[in-house]
Amino acid sequence: MVVQLGTVVGIIVGMLVAGVLSDYGFAGGWPSVFYVFGMFGCVWAVAWFLLCYNSPSTHPRISTVELKYWETMIGTSDLVAHPPTPWREILTSVHVWALAVAYFANNFCFDTLVACLPLFMHDVLGLDMTQNGVSSAIPFVGAIVAMPIAGSFADWLRAPGRLSTNAVRKIFCVAGYLLTGGLSVLAGYIGCNRALAVANMFAIIASSHVAYPCVAVNALDLAPLHAGKIMGLMCTIGTTASIGGPHVVGLLTSHRATRSEWQNVFFLVAGVYAVGAIIFLIFGSGNRQRWADGTTSVEVSVTHDRNRQHVNDKEETDFAEQHAGTNN
Questions:
Q1: Spatial CA neighbour of 101 closest among 266, 93, 185, 11
Q2: CA dist list (Å): 244 to 12, 70, 111, 238
Q3: Is the dihedral angle over the CA atoms 318, 319, 323, 326 positive or is it negative?
Q4: Contact yes or no for 21/39 (Cβ under 8 A)
């Protein structure tokens, strides 16, 4: 969730800065956007190489408490182990492909909005560049609001005695996608009311991140030790959506870029979300797979629940001891 929050903050800042630079920047305006963002990309790359490590156990600045948490939840050997990747099982898993379809839907719709929302603001609402940057950035604040709430609620529901991880993942995916699809259809009928259009876009971005506690972490549910490979497969498929989405928008709005043409875009977004929700509801899973580490999913699920309960019990014990010490 922290990674996605960083992404959204980058989108918000990028929209604002790009709008201002396009109107008032150096090198003729819009070229300055590429110079400034390119410079920050280089700085980020240097920071990445200096600060990132292969595993929690090799990180020199990880706290003892955090390292102990990972050892309890995953196991000491799993933190440094590099078992053979079960590519055949991954590529033939219906649950992995259901997640890939859901991730495709997420990227198609979200990245299309990221790339084309300023175009919508220009074509339908008639905003200049600076106003466009501000109005395009505001809706993404909805992600910052929705993600922590959705993530915390999902974790609360997954606590022992409430709902299974499988049920929580499906509920959040379906609810988030269907709500976002419905609001997307509504966006095509709002008209030229700028405040209402921006508010609706805010609601669209916020509701799309209700599904984030599913699509962002489900690879860890299926196979923690191979989640990186599964994410690589998901991102490959999702990138095709990120590439294709803006091109489809260009085709649908190439004639006159009118509100009626943008209605077709929003209907398409709603349809893609609906397909992603249905596929994941039927074929998705929140259970650890038996090929994840050679044990059955039932055995792994029981072990994971016990480890999680152990961590919760330990935290409660530590809190009680600290409270008793304070009273004394």
A1: 93
A2: 23, 38, 10, 10
A3: positive
A4: no
Read off the pLDDT band of 326 (50, 70, 90).
very low
292 phi, psi to nearest 5 deg: -65, -40
Q: Which secondary structure element, helix H or strand E, spans residue 268, and what is its range?
A: helix 259-283
Task: Report CA dihedral (306, 311, 316, 321) to the nearest 10 degrees.
Answer: 120
pLDDT at position 24 over 80: yes
| % of residues, the chain, pLDDT over 70 | 85
pLDDT tens digits along 178-192: 999 999 999 888 877
Let me know: does 6 contact 12? Beta carbons within 8 Å: no
Return the amino acid letter for 281.
L
Domains of the chain: 55-82 (no CATH), 86-294 (1.20.1250.20)
The answer to whether the beta carbons of residues 173 and 215 sit under 8 Å apart is yes
